[in-house]
Amino acid sequence: MLCGSKTRVRIAKTSPNKVEIANEKKLAGCIDHTLLSATAASEQIKQLCDEAKSYGFHAVSVNPRWVGLAAEQLHGSKVAVGGVVSLPLGADSTKNKAAQAKDAIFAGADELDMVADLAAIIEGDSRYLLTQLQAVLKVCRSMRPPVVLKVIIESAALNHEQKVFACRIAQDVGVDFIKTSTGMNPAGGATVEDIKLMKETAPNCKIKAAGGIRTAKQAIEMLNAGADRIGTSSSVLIYNEFKTQKQEYERGIR
C-alpha cells in the first residue's frame, strides 16, 4: 500500500508476487524502455539502447524495423531486446503473426509483445484465440533459449467478462505475460483495477502494465497492484523522479 511520502518510493514485500523496490536500480529492472513511434529513426533507437544500458532497464521495446539495430547496440549487455507483433491492431492472421514472430526473433528479439485478436476476445471465440496464441507461443518455445511471449489484450477496450475471458485463455495456453495495452488505443491504457483483475484471473502468468504510465507514482502503484513489468516511453523521467523522491525521504529522516 502507498500512503504518504515515506512509501511513495518503496514497495513493501507483502506477497510472493511482489518485489521490494528499495532503490532506482531495482525499479529500472522492472521497466521495458519503449520507443514505438512510426517516425523514430536510427539515432533515436541508438539513444534508446544507450539509455537502457546506462540506467539498467530490463529491455528495450522497438518496432520490427529496428530489432536488428537494437540487437547490435545491446550485444554483450544485460538488456533484452523486445520486438512487437501485430501492433497496434492485433488483426493479422495467425499465419502472419507467427511469421512476424519468427522474423523478429531471427533479427535478435529476446522477447515479443503481441497484440491479441480483439474481435476473438469480444466475440468470445475461444477456439480462434487459443489456436492463434498457441501458434505464436510454439514459435517462441522452439527457440533456444526460449523467447518470452507477452500478449496484449487492450484491457481498457474490454468489459469485465471479456478481460476475464482473455486472461483465462492466455493462462491456459501458457504465455509468459499478459499485458494491458499498446498505449495506442483510444480507450486508454493500464489501470490499477485491471492489473489486480488480471493477476487474480491468471495467477500463473506475469503481468505487464503499459499505456499512460508517465510518473514514478504510477509505476509503483502498478507494481503494488501485481504488475511484474512496466512498459513506458517515460522510463528515464520515472527513474530520475523515483531517485529524487528517495533522496528527499532519506534526507528527511536523518
Description of the molecule:
The protein is of the alpha/beta class. It has a single domain (24-253), classed as Aldolase class I (TIM Barrel). The chain has helices at 24-28, 42-55, 67-74, 94-107, 118-123, 126-141, 160-173, 192-201, 216-225, 235-253, and strands at residues 31-35, 59-62, 80-85, 111-115, 148-152, 177-179, 206-210, 229-232. The chain has an eight-stranded parallel beta barrel, surrounded by seven helices. Helix 4 runs parallel beside helix 6 (126-141), helix 6 packs parallel to helix 7 (160-173) and helix 7 packs across helix 8 (192-201). The two termini are 24 Å apart. Residues 1-17 have low confidence and may be disordered.
Q: How do you describe this structure in short?
A:
The protein is α/β, with parallel strands linked by helices. It contains ten helices and eight strands. The protein has a single domain, classed as TIM Barrel (Alpha-Beta Barrel), CATH 3.20.20.70.
Instruction: Using the coordinates shown, work out and report the CATH topology.
Output: TIM Barrel
Q: Helix and strand string, N-terminal first?
A: HEHEHEHEHHEHEHEHEH
Q: Provide mean pLDDT, rounded.
A: 92
Helices, by number, come to 10
Number of strands: 8
pLDDT < 50 runs, ≥5 residues:
1-17
Separation of the first and last Cα atoms: 24 Å
Inertia-based shape: globular
* Helix content range: 40-55%
**CATH superfamily grouping:** Aldolase class I
Main β-sheet description: 8 strands, parallel, barrel
Question: How many domain units?
Answer: 1
Secondary-structure class: alpha/beta
* Quaternary structure: single chain
CATH top level class name: Alpha Beta
Rg calc = 18 Å
CATH architecture tag: Alpha-Beta Barrel
Order of strands across the main sheet: 1-2-3-4-5-6-7-8
Share of β-strand residues: 5-15%
